[in-house]
Amino acid sequence: MSSKKLQGAELTLSPAEQQAKINEVRKLIGPAVDKFPAMCSDASILRFLRARNWHTKRSAKLLKETLIWRLETKPDMIRWDDIAQQAETGKVYKADYFDKYGRTVLVMKPGVPNSYSVETQMRYLVYCMENAILDLKPRQERMVWLIDFEGWNMSSISVKVTRETARVLQDRYPERLGLAILYNPPKVFESFWIMVKPFLEKRTYKKVKFVYPNAADTQKVMEDLFDMDKLESSFGGKWTQGFDFVAYSKRMREGDDKMTDFVISGAPLPSDQNVTAETRQSSAPDNSLELSEDGISSTDETALNLESSDETEDWHMSCKNEIKVDPNASNSKQMKQSK
């Protein structure tokens, strides 16, 4: 008997039903499956299926588009020296601690000025995402975004940056966000939130939590999630040292070495290892603070083993020819990439 159930608008499937969906997506992907074993693993496909509520054609379309995007942009080949200048202000950085559930933490400070182009900012965000994903603990598939609104005002608004950030997160790294904490946003932010909320899928905006330092439950929220001795004072923690660019550069270069070793190895990400529909169903649930109606979370793709060589371009073209995206499979609510 089928175990399909509706929880709001979301399906819950048995491991056998999930595996059948995985197999169907593989068939829709076609010959490219053999060229992208990590991206087309059970772990990766489960994540794309969750992002499209188990609709196989839409999931396959999203996965195909992501394969092409990774071939064209080579996100796992971006290195610290390529983007270091953007990090000098500490506007976005990966924290040197995890939350209590083993999730990588990305800190964002939208109030810090940024004069770089949207494309350049997105490239830096992708670098941070790739690095954060590689650092996730085994069987932990998601990260936390800590967003500090100190210094934010209406002049900080960039609808295009916000829209592109949402697109990168939802279309290229679906199901990687576990929780986004908006810490102490000013009252005026409410009108901006109403404006940008349509850019977010329901699954994404349900993972957003507004936290105010004067609220009665704020301290408990942060203590439940973080080691307060390591958490920055700007988020109510005890760590008072500011962003250290020199120390951060050293950490990121070490991360680059780790990424290079990972790409060469062709091994699955720690969070993806031995994940199937059956093992994911039987593993411990993610019981951390989260506003979404989550059941089984899926995992992100392993970074592709791309090499910089003359042969690579021919190989890319061959793969792109095999990855045919069916426009009729698109979700009507799917956001279009801004021009």
TrEMBL record:
<dbReference type="InterPro" id="IPR011074">
    <property type="entry name" value="CRAL/TRIO_N_dom"/>
</dbReference>
<dbReference type="GO" id="GO:0008526">
    <property type="term" value="F:phosphatidylinositol transfer activity"/>
</dbReference>
<dbReference type="Pfam" id="PF00650">
    <property type="entry name" value="CRAL_TRIO"/>
</dbReference>
<protein>
    <recommendedName>
        <fullName>CRAL-TRIO domain-containing protein</fullName>
    </recommendedName>
</protein>
<feature type="compositionally biased region" description="Basic and acidic residues">
    <location>
        <begin position="314"/>
        <end position="325"/>
    </location>
</feature>
<feature type="compositionally biased region" description="Polar residues">
    <location>
        <begin position="328"/>
        <end position="339"/>
    </location>
</feature>
<feature type="compositionally biased region" description="Polar residues">
    <location>
        <begin position="271"/>
        <end position="307"/>
    </location>
</feature>
<dbReference type="InterPro" id="IPR001251">
    <property type="entry name" value="CRAL-TRIO_dom"/>
</dbReference>
<feature type="region of interest" description="Disordered">
    <location>
        <begin position="267"/>
        <end position="339"/>
    </location>
</feature>
<feature type="domain" description="CRAL-TRIO">
    <location>
        <begin position="80"/>
        <end position="237"/>
    </location>
</feature>
<dbReference type="InterPro" id="IPR052578">
    <property type="entry name" value="PI_Transfer_CRAL-TRIO"/>
</dbReference>
<dbReference type="InterPro" id="IPR036273">
    <property type="entry name" value="CRAL/TRIO_N_dom_sf"/>
</dbReference>
<dbReference type="InterPro" id="IPR036865">
    <property type="entry name" value="CRAL-TRIO_dom_sf"/>
</dbReference>
